[in-house]
Description:
This protein has five helices and seven strands. It is α+β, with helices and mostly antiparallel strands.
Amino acid sequence: MKRPLRYYGDPVLTTPARKIEHVDDAIRTLAEDMLETMYAEEGIGLAAPQVGESLSLCVVDVPRDSDRDPDGNPYNPDLLMPLVMVNPDIAWASEHQESREEGCLSLPEIRAPIRRPVEVTVRWSDLDGQLWERTLRGLVARCVQHEVDHLNGILLPDRMSPVHRIALAGRLKRLRRAAEKDLRTAAQSR
């Protein structure tokens, strides 16, 4: 089931997510719903807080054609998509970083260059409780870092340069006001 997205200004997005102690049917359903929502919104990653659940869960599905080096070789050739990551943790990040434009489903129409490590080692559990540790590269590494930021209550504007934050201040303010209005309307209708 597609779930409604939460937008910039909603407090759930800036609250660090709770660790998942046990994967049950509710967590599996949430992961399925998150995948459906991500695909419907044409995203490549989604964190549980973006659908209003303050839980340490994210999904990632980077198209293989979008994750290749300049010679056309896949950065993560044996990685099966989609990834469902329970309690993901970045254990290591490369010193080498690059700046690439990023967007976010919770900040529609906002894009900015964000500097991130080009490689990260991530530890997570899957929905069956199996533990994974992988060094990720390219767009998958960037996407996972973005989603882990969400789980830690860090949003795209927190990673932007001050110049970009100032340039986007008007749009960010409008998004925040719209989200606050939606939250008030939802609270009044209860």
